[in-house]
Each structure stands twice: as structure tokens, then as C-alpha cells.
Sequence to fold (588 residues):
Amino acid sequence: MDKQAFFDGQVFDAYRWFGAHIENQSVIFRVFAPNAAKITVTGAFNSWKEDALQQDGRSGFWSVSVPGAQVGQFYKYRIYAQDGTVTEHCDPYGFAMELRPGCCSVITDLSAYTFTDADWMAARTASPAAPVNIYELHLGSWLQDATDQNGWYRYDTIADRLIPYLREHGFTHVEFLPLSEHPFDGSWGYQNTGFFAPTSRYGTPAQLKALIDRLHHAGIGAIMDFVPVHFAVDSYGLARFDGTPLYEYPHADVGESEWGSYNFIHSRREVRCFLQSAANYWLEEFHFDGLRMDAVSRLIYWQGDPARGVNGDTLEFLKNLNRGLKERHPTALLIAEDSTTYPGVTHPIDADGLGFDYKWDLGWMHDTLCYFQTPPEERPQHRDQLLFSMQYFSNEQYLLPFSHDEVVHGKAAIVQKMWGADLTDKYAQARALYLYMFTHPGKKLNFMGNELGLLTEWNEAAALDHSFEHGPFHTFFCALGQVYRAHPALHCDYETDNFRWIEPQDGAPCVFAWERCGGGERLLAVCNLSDQAQPFSAAPPSVRLLLHTDWTRFGGGTKETDPLFFNISDNISISLPKFSAVLLQIDA
Fold:
């Protein structure tokens, strides 16, 4: 490793040097701890006694070679601080860890698995014209294994159920909530202790690689949630690693996050190399097809608050991170979970942007759900909640999310959010909501369970209720996903002539219509979001019905054999049942 580049914050593969690496019949342990007085490594290989690491001058680089150490053995570092205290830590660059509540790192051979996905990797694209329909997944609660005491499937064995499921729905990618090692199940992986260690809850690094390899052979991309803002406070992790705040701010007012974790100090170049290397590690070593970066607002503004101003150090880190990742992985997707209005998040870095491929459109999510929670008699006064998104949509390359954040902590499941108490009406509105989502410009993301039409919010400690599988709503969602995949007009999201609103000739305030163009086809979507049947008339007359949310197999009252058009002359005329939507293909 170029040590000067490390101190300059330019290294993206520090994990190749730091950590525990097998060399001949020994394992060499390397760690960075510039303020430590002494460091030893203890593990199964030395009967949990201590082998002292030696520092290279006063550089902060410590290392020792231990003969006879073997793959699979546990180890820890004992850090002796200048004040005489001694703390045991896991390896910041460790490639595996034991299952919680244990906290040892595990000697791991990263070359133990050989990928067979060369064709996928060569054909992979980050083109904004490609379809992106993401299934956001918490691996431990999607499906539970009755033979495991915790209910966890292994990375590789869950593939047998997961891959056909993804294909059935027309999903293009699966996005895993953070798989980096973490001590607390209830953090869902967002408070890490092992930034280079796939959580042992679901198996080994090799088994995770096998899952991704199989996904690629099935034509499905894998995205990893990555957490570059903060880390867990557990004493064995990064906290006060060398006896001083090495990875975190030294002051609590900016060093502690709203989640009870420690904020990374991105102004330190060594910390930048740590995070840059971790991000690159998942793309390089595990063939992930993208990273969704969590809490980007905290990397733009001081603690995510625009009133406190832009944080120049974190913004510089973010730009350098995205630039470096794109240089190494130009076809990997970089996705920002950003709730701010900071401009240029998806613009090129050379054009003063942040270099992401996509940004979550949380404004669209909020406005849309608010509209569907509004009583029908009040909806005419809230029409702009659905129209507003296209006034700003050209500013960024947006992704439309209904994520895990919207179905936890008392927020209710998506179907529950719909107005009214009658379940028939709730499901009808949810079907119309999703047709609106999938025909609105922007890539798509849905958290697991949304596709089933669940009536309870997500609980990470319980399995998803698969009894809803193949019910009417689930049947609709699968059909919608397949229609999305099949029609290129729904993929060309960011072309200026891809979208236009159609003004209904009947002037019904709760009827919305829009046209999508691209890939040599034109589509027309029409939604009636009132609680009464509504007519819709517009040109042109020659259309073909692709999908109707009110079909009986989806839980509605319209037979597929029922005529849709009650009059065709110079215009098309449709009678839309309450809370329904249709997707039409306009013939050339």
C-alpha cells in the first residue's frame, strides 16, 4: 500500500494491506492505530495469549506475522492506550466476525469462492434508460428457517426461494439492508462494527458470494445498503480505537448522532480511506451491482440540518468517494438516500454535482401518500400533490421509493395508509397507487411486503406473512411488474419528451392521465381517484388495454371480458370505476 496516499486520503483498497492476510504458512496482521502505546493480537492460534505487533517507526502502522494461524480461527486486538487502559477490539478491516454477542474477528480467505458471472459483469449497465425495479429486503425476516434457532436462512440456501420470487415480480434488482456485521438486530444493520465483514447471521463471505453469483446468472442485480455516516458505539468496535477518538469526532456535540451512534470524522484522510476501501470492497470482492448510501443529508449538511450549513469536509469526501468508485466500477449504481433539496446530487462531479446515478425522491413519496390518505371529498383541493412532482423532476435522476422507513414505527403498511375503513376500497386505492407509481417517471423501489398487500407493518423479529402470496393484490403486483419490464416507454425516465400530462376533457378533478413515450411506443395511463365512477375522454382513438386495476382477478369488480370503451369516434371514452386505473398502449 502507498502509505503516503493513505495519509492523503486517496486509497480505495486499504483492505488488501490491513486486516489478517494469509501468507505462506503464516497470517500477517496489520492495523492502523497512531496513538496506541502497545498492540497485541490474541486468538485460537496462540491459545489466547498475546503476540505483540510492531510499529513501523512512529507511523501508526502496526503488524505481526503469526506462524500456524489458520483460516476460521477467531482473533482480537488488545489496544494499550497511552493512559494505561487496555481495550479489546475486533479488526476494523476484518473480513468476518463471529455471531453476536461474540465480537471476535475471523481469519478469512477471500479467494475461497470463484465467481462464474463474467458475462453478467461484462454486460452490466448503469444506463438511465435501463429498467430499474428494486426489491428492498431484510434478509433475516423475509423468510425464516424452522431448522435454525434464530430462524435465519444462509445466504446461499435462501437463493432457491428468493430468485424465483424476484423473477415472478419483474424485479430487476434486490437491495439488501446493510449486511455489514452489526451487534444489535434492531438496528437492521445500520449501526456497524464490521465494515468489511458480511454478517455471520446468514453465513460466510463465500456463501454471500454464491448468492450474488446465482442472482447474476438469473439476470438480477444485487445492491448493498452502505452506511458511510456513523458506526456503533460498542467498545470493541471503532470507538476510541487507539485510546483516542480515531474514527469519530472528539466532541460529543457533533460526534454523537440522533441514532445514538458515533459520527465518522470525514476530515481525517485515514478515515476517508477506510470508508472508500469499504465501499470499493463490496463492489470489487462481492460483485455487488451498486451501493445505496444511507443518510446522505448528513454528508451534505452539518448533522443533516441545512440551517447549520454545508459541511465542506464531508462533501469533499463524498465527491472523492463517488469519483473513485465510478473510475473503478463505471457500471455500478450509486444511489443517494437524500431528503434535502441540495442541487446536483445526480449531476457529474466535474459539473459541480455529487456524482450519484439516482436520488430517492422523498418529496414524491410524501406527497403521494398524503394524497391517498386524504378523504375523497377533499381530494379536488389537493390535486397539486400529484401534479407537483413533474415540476421539479428534471432537476435530478430520481428513484421513487416506498422503503422500509415507510412501514415501521407506527407508520402502517402501504395498504393501511389508504383512506377509509373498508378493505375493498383500501386495496382498490393501493392498486391505483402502484399503477401511478410504475408509470410515473423514475426508477422504482419497494420494501418487502409491499408486493403482498400486507395489513401489518414490518417487524424485523418476525417472518414476512407469506399467506398473502398469490392473493388478488399480489397477483396484481406481479402483473404490474411484468408489464413494467416489458415496455421500454416506462424505462426512458429522464428524456424531456418521455412524459406529458393529458387534461381530461370531462374536467373531473380526481381523474389524472399522462402519456409515456420511448422505445418506439406510446402508453397512456389514466387514474380515477374519486369514490365515484368517472368518465374519461381523450384522443387518440386507437388504443389497446394492457392492465386494469379493477379486474376481478386483482380483487376488483370488472371482468376482463367486459368492454372498456363505451364510445369510440375521434376520441377514446372510458368509464372508470371508483379508485381504479388503466394502462393503455397507443397504436401507431
Observations:
- The first strand starts at residue 19 and ends at 23.
- Residues 371 and 385 are 6 Å apart (CA to CA).
- The radius of gyration is 26 Å.
- The first helix runs from residue 3 to 7.
